[in-house]
Each structure stands twice: as C-alpha cells, then as structure tokens.
Design brief:
Blueprint (H helix, E strand, L loop, with lengths): L6 E3 H6 L2 H17 L2 E5 L5 H15 L3 H4 L11 E3 L20 E5 L8 H7 L10 H28 L16 E8 L2 H4 L9 E4 L5 E5 L7 E5 L3 E3 L8 E5 L1 H6 L8 E4 L11 E8 L6 E2 L15 E2 H11 L5
Parallel strand pairs: 1-2
Antiparallel strand pairs: 2-10, 3-4, 4-5, 5-12, 6-11, 7-10, 7-12, 8-9, 8-11, 13-14
Helix pairs in contact: 2-6, 3-6
Length: about 325
Amino acid sequence: MSRDVPVLDLTAWHAADAAGRAGTGAALDAALRETGAFLLRGHGIPPELTDRMRTQGRAFFALPATVKQQYAVSRPYDNGWRGLGALDVGAVDGAAGTPDLHEAYHVGPSHSTGDPAYDARYYPRNKWPEEQSGLRETALEYTGHMTRVAHSVLGVLASVLGLPEEHFTSRSQRATWTQNINWYPSLRTVGGVAEGQMRVGPHTDFGTLSLLDRQQGVGGLEVWNEADGWFRPPYEQNTLVVNLGDLMNLWTDGRWRSLRHRVLAPSDAAPDEELVSLVYFFETDPDTEVVPLSAPTGGGEGMSPVIAGESILEKVGASLTLG
C-alpha cells in the first residue's frame, strides 16, 4: 500500500543476517521510491535527553523577544534564533505565500578547515544564550547522538542500494548540518491564521536526510505522495521520522524521493495546542560533488551534478520571507 511507512530498527538491522536485511531493505526501497520517509527505532537516543532538549527549547522561546533578538540569525545560512514568520519554505518551490507560523533556534557543527572564509560560510558559529546555560550542554549532547544516528542510517541506505556501507559517510566527515528546535505556538498565542498559512508550508528538505522527533498534534505533520496526496504518517513514541532530502534524490538520480511534507496550522479544534519539534537536517561535506548514481542503482533521470554546499546555500536563501 502506498501509505505504508515502514519501520527500520537499527539494533535489529545490525543483528540481522543477509536474508533479514534483504527483507527490510526491500520495504525501505519501496517506501523511498514512493514517498521518501520511514520510522526509525533502536536509535539509542535516551528519552531523558530528548525531553531535556525540548524543555530547554521551550525555556528559550519563553524569553522576552528583546533577549532572543541578541541571538538572532544575521544571514540566510546561520545559527541562532529566527522569530515568528521569518521563513516561507514554500517559496523554494515557487509557491510563495504566507510566512510560516513557528519560531526556531538553530545549532550547527563547529568544524574547522583552517580557511576562515570557508568556515564562516559553511560552519557559522553557534549563539548560545547566556541567560540559559543548560541549552548549550544539552544541545551538544543531543546533536552528538543525531550525527551518530545520521551516519548509521546512511550506512543502511548505502547497503540497500548495493553500495559499500561507507559510500555516503566517507563524504560526510565534516558535513554541514543544522539542528532545529521548532516551536509551534498555539492558536490563542498567534491570534489567528491567514488563509493558506501553516506552521510549516509544503516543502522538501535540502540535504541528504532529516531526523525528526515530533509531538503528535491536531496541527501536525502531513506527508505527500502521488497515489494518496496528503496524509498523516503513523506516530510511534520514541521513534524518529527519517525523511530524504533533495541531495539524496539527486544522488540516487531520482530513484528515491525527497519527502514532500508540511506542518498544519494551529486548529480551532485545539486552540491551546503548542508543540515543539526537534529536527536535525544532515547534508554532506560542503565541497562534495554529488554525482547521480548510474542506472540500475540510480533512477535514470539524468540529473546534473551539484556541489553540495552551493546547492544548500542557494535554497536556504530562497526560503526567507521579504517582510
């Protein structure tokens, strides 16, 4: 069925024999061709750490706007705080409309290549709030786990494609990534919703894969495929949603989809609902030339290679609102 969103258990995968992996791999491959997402169990991220990350995020967003402004992003690809309405992700697909109804706090890696201009471009410094010392410690611990999980998932995906397990990770030793804490305020807080406005408008992510820890809600995640249109993926506590991004779609030459998804607006049915999502966007080394895989491994769409970092910067700039 096209609405099937399979589950990958990393612990079970690493313990499985060739036949077990083949069955799991076939289910993953089918879902990634159709929709572009699956659920992830056995990732080893302590639930206590996830709860602490969410708690730290809520505390940061509760600070006065004048305080948060000290940690605001200053350019398109940057770390720090983005206020309500700073993004319109649908604009990347040429569907610019209304600003997204969420605030975000962004964290990134601290890699250093020795080239100050290059590092400033791709590894912007983190802006840790002095008013909340626990956020830095928690975020560094959490993103360490997320990077580990991203590498593990990339190894699985390479195996599903019949490639060496290190095919993607060997090009991701100083990868760019962004960890978002997204706050989706309640309907009472925002005061109203414009026609067509959402917490996050319809879009695909820009990188290789994203890892999402979400909270279930009325105004929550929906995903899309051609057979079904928009639908809600299954929710399972303590799992992550893994969705593929544009770089992986290109890398597989269209074999696998980048997931089209959105987060619905706050609803009259739940006017006090406010949610916090933890979203980890993993890319690859910024100077990697992403060359589409040839058929039959690749999908045969004849896509053109890109330099990963340049592709990401171009799309991030297009997602900003002008207001």
